[in-house]
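From the shared-data thread, chain only:
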Amino acid sequence: SLREMTRVAGSDPALWREILLANRAVPEMLGSFRAHLDELDLALRSRDAALLGRLLCAARRARKAIA
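Structure, as tokens:
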């Protein structure tokens, strides 16, 4: 849900500022996230159902690996 996706935004900004500044992996992770969003954007704009399906399957596998 939107509420769960925005949980960090509802938290203490000072706490998250320190967490993000201390975690040197965040910029690299943001770059990777941005690349995935660009690929998703391309799939949607071009209406490429095959690419969209592959992206959704990859996202599902990634989520299962976390849980």
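Helices lie at 2-5, 13-22, 26-45, 49-66.
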